[in-house]
């Protein structure tokens, strides 16, 4: 299993994702620079947290034009697994790979704390090792994590069981408490909470391994095919 | 432009300083040269009032690899790993423009760390404001607090460094002069250290990072003057920060350092191009010649004067080996940054500034960097506004007092602040905000670094020397309580106008107290910052030294601060204390309940303190205890309440045996005391006895209530959740409640 971690110039959780995959889960992980037009031979891609190109405009608004995102789109179209965490989620919505948008938190402040989440569906490569309805506690750290979408989009997400994670207690004003969603083909997921920050007992929690181990094992299965 | 007496005064140079310039140059300076001298000889850059006293500080140990004088101190932590750390103030800019002032404060100290080759892994902030509910100034103080906190968050979060702790204090004395002191720490291997030296005649001087604009001109001189009504006109002197640019600069610099082509590097902080060029030249004993036409500029038509004095952020100056410039340029190109050769290292020791070939300044580097005036300013006895004796205090309701203390700005939970900071990025935060000390693990090793930041303007207002010693003791105790061995110190000395002898006496007393305590606790000072002229309209701030101390420990799951199991024995390591009545006057109890200040700071026995710290480190290391929390401001009752605020909501049933008055017993702030809970009290007693430290069994942990009795008299009785809600929500309430504006003034 080889996971590629995309590095935009302003990514700052890139190393954390790399560490969780390679050191906490013992899989291969490598960095992919933002101007690369190829992802190499990775089995899955993580778009990490951070501030892609500074994000002084809208978060991810510039990142969607980067060469690596063309490669990510092709990879996703062919069924490759793509996980966007925090800024990565913002980039995926900007790039049109996921519906909706992420806007400023309802309290207009950056929020960093651990929050409880409901695993809404286990029918995804990112949560198949979880139990439906299970509560996991993960850190959030974002200024623009309030998920919004048109009502019919939200209805469709619910109808198609594409809401993966919901906040138990809404910290940022997200519509319908949405913390993570899937694309229609269920191979692309975006989530605001940080599973890579909860992958090591030394830093407080291992709840994030539910997500990352699901991804890694889904990738192992996929790469065997 | 002719240099008239008015021009000299406008540059905040005295007549004697100007005479010294004339004799150093042997001629009249040009206006550009005058500007260069004025910033390099400003209090902010030259430490001219404090230098002779700073010499008294201990600066060496077997661990110290770099003491004061470089961009940051460096300390060995074992396994070939070293840490670089330092604290700096951005007080004046943060008052004028809170958001950018604080943001660029973070940016400046981060550059100090990575210019040495270390990757920043933690930031802490010590911030002080006027009171949020003050009828006259509350509205402004709230705006400043909100601006400062979001400025720190904006910069640190985007840059990608966790903000892991600090302190926040509200005191009338900081009304017109908030304090923003930022500490940063970075990590590297011993062989990755870089210095700010322009060595090697003929080597290239290279400018990297953001373009130069007109922002921040004369920031260093502004930071060296008192606030007046006119200061509000100085807003353009505050720089604007770009944390994304800084992140690029970090990655590019660390990558460029790996090429081996870089000889020396320094950030352009206060006085930008001026300080970086002359300091690098002075340290290496070389000269530097630059031509400003090569400097990347944000706007056209800038004069040499403006370019040399600009404090535009996110810029660095580096010296690269001749012939290897391209290796450096290619790294900066990869990160999309400007990197331009602007000059060369020369052998004549001069700073020579040209613009399109015409010389605008020609000054010996040493004159600027090392021959700044040094003043032995007269000092008398420290300014003291508080009386020695206070009223006889008798409480009507100690439980209500406890609740008021928990709701007070200084003691309440700071989660409203720290939840705006990303304190986890880089996944090394073993213990973050809300602990006695923060702990950051160093990946790939078994070593963790602990750090604590402390100040106490009230104690220092009562006695600068003893107050400063108490701060050092407290900081070392914070570290010991999480199991860390304190190893080195940085400090930020915030004082008023040193030209007033009673203020100078505060500075001298505080530095001597710092020297004495740092020597005793074996935590040498490796650097720091002095911020003077913290006065507004003639009113000085409380003398406020802020001390940052770092420690080391083996990486592991941290010792909890809070009680976590019922029926554990609660022991007060260090004992109940035996304070005299004067020692209540500086406490939070007197501040919050009686809005007063008098008496003396708590009495400190440094030898006993050291043994208490030794004891707690052993208890934590041996895991003899279930929790540990140091007793600090607010005293025993506050510490007991805080120990109850864990996820388990585990409180305490405490029975004391003391002849002290209840107010004193519960709220005195005597040092050398740590609250622990344990399943093995005999083991705790025996370790304490071995170290000749008193250890008093005071009660047991109890679910959901805090009950405190003395000799069977009930003093305090409350539900834990009630106390916790008050403590948790208070800051938010303080910010939202309407201020009762007094319209008579």
What can you tell me about this protein's structure?
- The complex is a heterodimer of chains A (225) and B (745).
- Chain A has 225 residues and is α/β, with parallel strands linked by helices.
- Chain A has helices at residues 14-24, 67-77, 87-94, 151-159, 209-224, and strands spanning 2-7, 28-33, 44-47, 81-85, 101-103, 111-119, 135-142, 146-148, 163-167, 178-182, 188-191.
- In chain A, the strands form two sheets. Chain A has a nine-stranded mixed β-sheet with strand order 2-1-3-4-11-10-9-6-7, sandwiched between helices. A two-stranded antiparallel ribbon of chain A has the order 5-8.
- The longest helix of chain A is centred in the last third of the chain and has 16 residues, at 209-224.
- In chain A, 60% of the residues are buried.
- Chain B is of the alpha+beta class and 745 residues long.
- Helices cover 34% and strands 25% of the residues of chain B.
- Chain A binds chain B through residues 9-10, 12-13, 15-16, 19-20, 23, 49-51, 53-56, 109-113, 139, 141, 143, 194, 196-197, 199-203, and chain B through 150, 153-154, 157-160, 242-245, 247-248, 251, 335-336, 415, 418-430, 441, 443, 555-557.
């Amino acid at each position: 299993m080889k996971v590629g971690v995309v590095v935009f110039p302003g990514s700052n959780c890139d190393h954390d994702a790399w560490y969780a995959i390679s050191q906490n889960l013992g899989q291969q992980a490598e960095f992919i620079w933002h101007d690369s037009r190829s992802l190499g031979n990775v089995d899955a891609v993580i778009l990490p947290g951070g501030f892609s190109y500074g994000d002084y405009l809208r978060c991810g608004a510039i990142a969607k034009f980067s060469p690596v995102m063309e490669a990510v789109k092709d990879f996703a179209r062919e069924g490759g697994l793509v996980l966007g965490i925090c800024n990565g989620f913002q980039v995926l919505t900007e790039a049109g790979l996921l519906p909706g948008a992420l806007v400023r938190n309802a309290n207009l402040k950056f929020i960093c704390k651990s929050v409880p989440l409901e695993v809404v569906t286990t029918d995804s490569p990112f949560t198949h090792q979880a139990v439906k309805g299970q509560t996991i506690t993960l850190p959030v750290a974002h200024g623009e994590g309030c998920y919004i979408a048109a009502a019919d989009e939200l209805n469709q997400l619910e109808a198609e069981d594409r809401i993966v994670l919901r906040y138990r207690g809404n910290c940022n004003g997200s519509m319908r408490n949405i913390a993570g969603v899937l694309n229609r083909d269920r191979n692309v997921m975006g989530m605001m909470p940080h599973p890579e920050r909860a992958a090591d007992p030394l830093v407080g929690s291992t709840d994030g391994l539910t997500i990352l181990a699901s991804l890694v094992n889904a990738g192992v299965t996929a790469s065997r095919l | 432009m002719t240099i008239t007496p008015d021009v000299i005064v406008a540059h905040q140079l005295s007549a004697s300083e100007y005479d010294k310039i004339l004799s150093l140059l042997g001629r009249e300076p040009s206006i550009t040269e005058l500007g260069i001298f004025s910033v390099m000889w400003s209090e902010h850059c030259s430490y001219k009032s404090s230098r002779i006293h700073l010499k008294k500080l201990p600066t060496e140990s077997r661990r110290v690899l770099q003491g004061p004088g470089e961009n940051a101190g460096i300390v060995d932590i074992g396994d070939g790993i070293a840490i670089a750390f330092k604290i700096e103030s951005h007080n004046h800019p943060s008052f004028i423009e809170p958001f950018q002032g604080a943001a660029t404060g973070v940016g400046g100290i981060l550059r100090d760390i990575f210019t040495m080759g270390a990757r920043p892994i933690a930031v802490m902030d010590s911030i002080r404001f006027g009171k949020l509910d003050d009828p006259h100034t509350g509205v402004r103080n709230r705006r400043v607090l909100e601006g400062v906190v979001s400025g720190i968050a904006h910069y640190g979060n985007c840059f990608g460094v966790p903000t892991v702790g600090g302190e926040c204090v509200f005191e009338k004395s900081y009304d017109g002069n908030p304090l923003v002191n930022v500490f940063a720490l970075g990590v590297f291997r011993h062989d990755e250290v870089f210095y700010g030296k322009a060595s090697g005649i003929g080597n290239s001087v290279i400018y990297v990072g953001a373009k130069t604009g007109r922002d921040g001109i004369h920031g260093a001189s502004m930071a060296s003057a008192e606030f007046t009504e006119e200061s509000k006109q100085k807003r353009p002197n505050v720089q604007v920060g770009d944390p994304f640019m800084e992140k690029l600069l970090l990655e590019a610099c660390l990558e460029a350092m790996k090429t081996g082509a870089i000889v020396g590097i320094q950030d352009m902080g206060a006085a930008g191009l001026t300080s970086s060029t002359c300091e690098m030249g002075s340290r290496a004993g070389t000269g530097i010649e630059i031509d400003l036409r090569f400097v990347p500029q944000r706007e056209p038509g800038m004069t040499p004067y403006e370019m040399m004095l600009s404090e535009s952020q996110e810029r660095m100056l580096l010296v690269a080996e001749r012939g290897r410039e391209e290796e450096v340029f290619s790294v900066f190109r990869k990160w999309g940054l400007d990197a331009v050769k602007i000059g060369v290292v020369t052998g004549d020791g001069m700073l020579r500034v040209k613009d399109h070939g015409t010389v605008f300044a020609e000054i010996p580097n040493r004159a600027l960097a090392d021959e700044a005036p040094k003043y032995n300013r007269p000092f008398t006895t420290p300014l003291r506004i508080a009386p020695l004796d206070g009223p006889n205090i008798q409480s009507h309701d100690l439980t209500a007092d406890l609740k008021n203390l928990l709701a007070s700005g200084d003691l309440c939970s700071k989660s409203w602040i720290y939840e705006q900071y990303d304190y986890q990025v880089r996944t090394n935060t073993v213990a973050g905000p809300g602990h006695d000390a923060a702990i950051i693990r160093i990946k790939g090793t078994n070593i963790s670094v602990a750090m604590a930041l402390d100040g106490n303007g009230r104690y220092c207002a009562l006695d600068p020397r003893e107050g400063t010693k108490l701060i050092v003791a407290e900081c070392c105790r914070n570290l010991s309580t999480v199991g860390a061995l304190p190893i080195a110190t940085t400090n930020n000395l915030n004082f008023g106008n040193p030209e007033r002898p009673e203020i100078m006496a505060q500075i001298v007393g505080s530095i001597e107290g710092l020297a004495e305590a740092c020597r005793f606790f074996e935590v040498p000072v490796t650097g720091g910052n002095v911020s003077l002229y913290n006065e507004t309209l003639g009113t000085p701030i409380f003398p406020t030294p802020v001390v940052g101390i770092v420690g080391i420990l083996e990486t592991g799951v941290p010792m909890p601060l809070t009680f976590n199991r019922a029926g554990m024995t609660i022991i007060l390591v260090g004992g109940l204390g035996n304070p005299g009545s004067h020692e209540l006057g500086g406490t939070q109890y007197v501040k919050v309940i009686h809005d007063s200040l008098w008496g003396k700071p708590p009495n400190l026995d440094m030898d006993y303190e050291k043994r208490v710290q030794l004891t707690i480190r052993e208890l934590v290391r041996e895991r003899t205890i279930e929790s540990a929390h140091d007793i600090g401001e607010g005293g025993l009752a506050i510490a007991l309440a805080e120990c109850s605020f864990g996820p388990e909501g585990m409180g305490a049933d405490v029975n004391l045996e003391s002849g002290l008055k209840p107010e004193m017993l519960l709220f005195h702030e005597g040092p050398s005391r740590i609250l622990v809970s344990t399943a093995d009290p005999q083991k705790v007693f025996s370790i304490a006895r071995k170290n000749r430290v008193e250890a008093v069994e005071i009660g047991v942990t109890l679910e959901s209530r805090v009950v405190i009795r003395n000799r069977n008299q009930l003093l305090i009785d409350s539900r834990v959740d009630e106390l916790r809600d008050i403590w948790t929500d208070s800051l938010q309430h303080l910010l939202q409640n309407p201020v009762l504006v007094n319209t008579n003034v």
